[in-house]
Amino acid sequence: MPALSPTMTEGNIATWKVKEGEAFSAGDVLLEIETDKASMDVEAQDDGIMVKIMAGDGSKAVQVGTRIGVIAEAGDDINSLEIPADEQAKEQPKEQSSAQAPKESTAPSESNPVEKKSAKPTGNDTYEHKYPLLPSVGHLIKEKGISEADLKKIKGTGPHGRLLKGDILAYLGSINPETPAANEVNFNNLFHLDLSNIKVATKPAPPSKPVEEAKAEAPKAPVVENLEVSIPITLSKVVEVQNRIHETLGVFLPISTFVGRAAEVANDDLPPTKRTPTANELFDQVLGLDKIKAAKGSRGVYLPQISAVPPTSLLTPLSP
Length: 320
Fold this sequence. Notes:
The chain is of the alpha+beta class. It is built from ten helices and seven strands. Among the domains are: 64 residues, CATH 2.40.50.100; 79 residues, no CATH class; 80 residues, no CATH class. Helices cover 30% and strands 10% of the residues.
């Protein structure tokens, strides 16, 4: 049972989202836990298989740290796995814990040199952690009896400062304290997309041509920035539809409404104009996404202009 808040001591299991023998992926919701304050989903941190559910749907007042299920790594044969016994650590009186602490610190095990190093901070720095904590972190905090005050002294090295199991073990001196710091550097490197090794391809130089052949080539015509195309059109159909709408709905639509709508439809089919690509379009070209995305229209670059107006009778609004 994970601790969803520093003050949580027990919780209720609303429902399991996975069944025994069912595989799941990182990020999938495993179960829904209810407390007296809120209901929250517990997500899987890695890929795995649900081996056995110890506390089923509707279980009430399950203590934090109590085994509620057993999971295996992805690809394991769950039929040959042996479920270990539940060796939940029982809380000992504070007097006994404080009496054993000096003995353990004065006689460390010589076979494990890593335990000689301690990651307990010597300053007064405090850290605010994001809740809910990871299930493995909450279980370890409950097992080791770490108080909320001591928990604020541990620096989280996970993404966005999230507290990891390695941070707790380094604080207790069970692992090398430099290991979480190295993992933090790796996490920070994964947050940024490094494009420094990408080089822009240069066009190959054209083959050299003889001087006589180069002179014989005709000069290229300059690129026309603005191009106007004039075609004759008739508005007889537009006037017919305009009268029909007015007779049936009693609404008068001006000619400009029909011309504007026709321009919108035409711009969707016309090719895009030559322009400087945006930063997003350049990034799509680097990733090769420009080849699979749909071609964009002209985005309203082509504008209609009416140089000859219809007769005056067509411009006069119809009487209501």
